[in-house]
Write a structure and sequence with these properties.
Number of domains: 1
Structural class: mainly beta
Strand content: 35-45%
Radius of gyration: 17 Å
Number of helices: 3
Strand order of the largest sheet: 6-12-11-8-9
CATH class: Mainly Beta
InterPro entries: Cupredoxin (IPR008972), MauL (IPR034242)
Number of strands: 17
Protein name: Plastocyanin
Keywords: Signal
CATH topology: Immunoglobulin-like
Shape: globular
Length: 226
Amino acid sequence: MHPFKKLSNRFASTFLAIAWLLNSINAEAIELAVQDQHGDPLPYTVIELHVEGAEPASNLSVAIMDQVDKSFSPEILVIQQGQYVNFPNSDNIRHHVYSFSQAKTFELKLYSGQPKQPVKFNNDGIAVLGCNIHDSMVGYVYIASSPYYVVTDTQGRAKINLPKGVKSITAWHALHRTGPESRMTLNHKSIASSDDKPFPITLVTTKPAPRNTFQSKFKNDTKNKP
């Protein structure tokens, strides 16, 4: 079983709804089935459609990634580029949230309750989060540059409208073998022209790293980048 089963249903349903609402009424729907190299479904895979001329979303609300029972909640948060995220601490102990990621480097020093202000994520990409006090805490903020995206369900399935002008389609999963900050580019022409429903996508994954080695895991991923 993959390690993201604790993500709330509200997370998945919210972003599925956003993806549907932002797509064109006349767009063709595509169905996807994402699995790993062993044929097991990959839930919580982010599929993003990069569309020519797509306007960025506006009037974005502040997203929330809480800290509950020494875990980020949700563990994976999908937001739009330029969106703010609030990181409340609902534990009765203090946390020190930080990220070394290229997409967003920041830290919220030792605090409990509400931080002083939310964090703005200006760049697209993936921010891997940790806690300087509790190394077992690992979270991911996926910053989408496109308003067209969807997250696979617990069976690795997703359905999204395919608008005109798609330049590329990418897939991201936290356990992808190239590291948690990398995305895989898919053959969008094959997906658009295929009669397969759902269209199969295979991502090669690695085993989750021990949850007491966040800092060393991140450094190793960075060191292995080309």
